[in-house]
Every structure is written in structure tokens, then in C-alpha cells.
Amino acid sequence: MKKVTGTIVGAISGYYDVETEQGIVRTRARGVFRDRKQKPLVGDRVVIQLDNKGMNYLIEILPHSNEIGRPAVANVAEVLLVISSVEPDFSTELLDRYLTFFAWKDVKVCIYLSKTDIAPKDKLEEIIQSLSYYSKIGYSVFTSAKDLEDKLPDLIKEKTIWTLAGQSGAGKSTLLNKLEKTANQATGKISTALNRGKHTTRKVQLFKYGSGFIADTPGFSAIDLYKIKLNDLANCFYEFSKASSGCKFRSCQHIHEPKCNVRQLLESGEISSSRYDDYLKIRQEISDNRMPEYLK
């Protein structure tokens, strides 16, 4: 029996589709994982055992760097965050919530502004001006679908996994459909040994894009920030974390502490007042240990 390593690109009804150097192989997981209460995730690197009778088994799950979403995807290198300009209206508060969540998960984010073609010109200019601040603090920002499509294949490094995220109605599906036109969708070559076709259920799946993968997932509908430790929150705001080296106290929370560099930069306009206001709102949410009712 031969053992090979691969990446889980899809899962349905207890079967796992694993991309290997030999192509995609459909497998079952050994019962030992159930006994260990361990579930293979899309994105996991795994070892599978190939049988010449067509009985292929997933026998080992290699350690993963992270797991995010519900349902979860593992080993996410970067999130492609889709934020709409209109319908629903652009919101820096929602944007900051997503960015805080993924910073807490230690996952990089690339921001894409959708529906720019139907946004009023003056409103769009205002949104793009707001997003320039996020570019300044280190986020990659795309306000053009064509620009994103041109550059994304080069951004996705070999065998790395990106995933889409964003609020309902922001245009994730529209973007995914555009990207899939030039993608060799991984789940399209599933083994026919079990006479099963490509499933249409909303499950997590990976498709090839550039030299890596993009995950199509229905997850990230709820952003539970109240689970972040209060003292860790400031580090989820990248510009705060960078500026904190100039604060008098190492544990400065940038509220009332003397000689706080973050508040000095806030007063001078170098740190966005809306970002700081959102920081205070999230701190309150964590203190209350609950998500605000209007965000549920």
C-alpha cells in the first residue's frame, strides 16, 4: 500500500477529496479520528493510504497553523475581505470588526471594495479616501475588480490558501464567479470511483487559483469579538501596536494612561478617529462579554 501527502480540497458526507501530486483522490477517514474527537478540515495537509482496490483512507492529519470560520477551513494564509460600497452601504465599523477578528486569528487581510460600478461618484470618492488610511497602515486595498483579477494570481503564493469573507450581499459570490472563469477548480476532477458527482451543497471547498487555492466558504457570518482578551485587543489594531512602543507604559491600553503615544497620534490626526472609536466600542463589547444586539 502506498502513502502520499496532500491537501483536503473538499468534504461531504464523510468523504474527503485530497489533492495530491497524482491528482485528486477521494478518501474516507479512519475511525481513530472519531475516537480522538478530531475532524479533518478542508485545507488540512494529510497523509492518505492508497489501495489498488480503490479503498483509500486518510490516516494522518498534519499540524495546521490555524482554523477559521464556521464551517472551518484550516491553514489560511490570507483573507480576501469583500466590503461593499453600497447595498449594503460601506461601513468602517464593520470593516474594523473584520480586521480585528482576523488580526486576533493572526491571519493577513487583503481588502476588496465591491459594487463600485453602482455607487454614486461623490460617495465612492469618500469611501476610497477612507480606505487610503487602511493602505497607509499596511493593508492591501483594491477598489477595482480588474486590478484585483490582474494581481491576485501573483499574490497567492504556491500551495497557500486564501479565503473569501464579508457580509451577506457584499458580492462574494459575484467575485468568486469572476475568478472561477480562469480557475482550474480543484473539485471538478473528483474521482468517479464512487459514482458521485460534484456536490452543490454549501460546504467549504478549495479551488485552484494561481499557484495556490481560494476557499469558497459560507462561514464568517458572526464575528465574535467579545472572546478576545481585553489586554490583547490593542495589538489587533496594527497602527496601535506599532505606536505603542512610544507609550510610557508597556501595558498601555491607550485610554487614560499618561504619555500615551497612540492618543498623541490620534490628536495629531495620524491615527484615525473612527478606528479609535471602534476600538473603544469593541473594548466595551469585551467588557460586557457579549456581542451588541444590533450586530447579531
UniProtKB/TrEMBL annotation:
Name one molecular function that GO assigns to this entry.
hydrolase activity
Q: Where is the EngC GTPase domain?
A: 74-221
Q: Does the keyword RNA-binding apply?
A: yes
According to its UniProt record, where is this protein mainly located? cytoplasm
Q: Which Pfam families match?
A: RsgA_GTPase (PF03193), RsgA_N (PF16745)
Kinase found in the keyword field: no
Q: Where is the CP-type G domain?
A: 65-223
Instruction: Tell me its EC number(s), please.
Output: 3.6.1.-
Q: Which UniProt keywords apply?
A: Cytoplasm, GTP-binding, Hydrolase, Metal-binding, Nucleotide-binding, Ribosome biogenesis, RNA-binding, rRNA-binding, Zinc
Which of this chain's residues are annotated to bind Zn(2+)?
A: 247, 252, 254, 260
State the free-text cofactor note: Binds 1 zinc ion per subunit.
Q: Where is it localised? A: Cytoplasm
Which residues are involved in binding GTP? 114-117, 166-174
Q: Which cofactor does it need?
A: Zn(2+)
> Kind of enzyme, top EC level?
hydrolase
Q: Which NCBIfam families match?
A: ribosome small subunit-dependent GTPase A
What's the stated role of this polypeptide?
One of several proteins that assist in the late maturation steps of the functional core of the 30S ribosomal subunit. Helps release RbfA from mature subunits. May play a role in the assembly of ribosomal proteins into the subunit. Circularly permuted GTPase that catalyzes slow GTP hydrolysis, GTPase activity is stimulated by the 30S ribosomal subunit.
Q: How does it assemble?
A: Monomer. Associates with 30S ribosomal subunit, binds 16S rRNA.
Q: Which family does it belong to?
A: Belongs to the TRAFAC class YlqF/YawG GTPase family. RsgA subfamily.
Q: What is this protein called?
A: Small ribosomal subunit biogenesis GTPase RsgA
Q: Which organism is it from?
A: Lactobacillus colini
UniProt lists the gene as: rsgA
